[in-house]
Amino acid sequence: MLYYAIVFLIIALIAGFFGFFGVAGLAAGIAKVLFVIFIILFIVSLIFGRRRRL
């Protein structure tokens, strides 16, 4: 998921550079959402993934 966030960020940067601000804004928004979801899932996996087995 982090890969897709980085891909959309790169698309946003390239589109912004060439003047496609509508596409850049949309791609940046998608990148932000994917990055937030990645961070949430990463934190949840850190909390619940380290259970000790007795």
What does it look like?
Helix content is 83%, strand content 0%. With 54 residues, it is mainly α. It has one domain (2-45). α1 runs antiparallel to α2 (21-48). It is rod-shaped, with a radius of gyration of 16 Å. The termini are far apart. The relative contact order is 0.16. The model has no long low-confidence stretch (mean pLDDT 86).
Labels describing this entry:
mainly alpha; 54 residues; 83% helix
Helix % is over 70%
How big is the Rg? 16 Å
The major sheet is characterized as: none
What is the mean predicted local confidence, pLDDT?
A: 86
SSE run:
HH
Distance between the termini: 33 Å
Beta fraction: under 5%
Number of helical elements: 2
Bulk shape: rod-shaped
Which class of secondary structure composition applies to the elements?
Answer: mainly alpha
Topology summary:
Elements: H1 2-18, H2 21-48
Helix pairs in contact: 1-2
